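Troubleshooting: if your tokenizer reports a length mismatch, compare your output against this known-good record of 303 residues.
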Amino acid sequence: MNTIIGGPAAPGAAPADLIKDSDTKNFVKDVIQESRKVPVIVDFWAPWCGPCKQLGPVLEKVVTQAGGKVKLVKVNIDENQQIAQQLRIQSIPAVYAFHHGQPVDGFVGALPESRVREFIGRLGGEGANPVAEALEAAKEALEQGARDEAIEIFGEILKLEADNPAAIAGLARCYIEADDLARAKDVLAKAPASAQNHTEIAGAKAALALKEQAAKAGDTAALEARIAADPKDHQARIDLAHALLARNDREGAAAQLLESIRLDRKWNEEAARQELLKFFEAWGQMDPATIAARRQLSSILFR
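Known-good structure output:
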């Protein structure tokens, strides 16, 4: 695969144009919209974080040397807790890469410069990247319901790069959608230790866990009857959310959890909110269902 090597920035691509601070208010403009033009790396950090101080200069150096192929946005989580919560940032430094408006890669912790170059190289290496193109084709096939085609492409990628986390996660999701959970577990078990914090691996694991839980959720009619008899039967709402998710009714599933949060957000140590965050991780932070439910969640929590 192509990687970015050292060298001067491209003409007109001064460091000030490549690296900037952002906040919750400007995140969509600085990251989501900008990533439709060029990959954007987001560094979530805090002033008290020692590893952040190690990683930050390395990211800035490699992004600058990439000469405009990628950009870097830095977000102080102490000052922007809402966006950190929405993206489920649990440990820092946390780095997310966005492209075409969606998170496509990421890692947690202070990596050495060689690993940072490899990471950024996957996003903005010179010339065509056949593995990246194959990943896009496989993901598109899966989204369009061509599961067998997606399995074949992901499999070919893994023959070339056995530890490619995006391909591992993609292949696992194919088997999850096919209800072949045993094979999905087997695929995820082969992910290297270095990929365990990868956003797509974590998302596939969350999707697998939800699929397993949905199978135990029970009959929707019985659960709906329980809720009709007692609207504050929070466990019934959580179980119904999983049953609806088994039918791929994401909006309906989220609605049940949001109503539980609205009625009593602290019930059972905020169980409904915790389940909803698991849904977000499984669906992906930029999934339309996630965005819609996250907006409703914010209106409930911060009203």
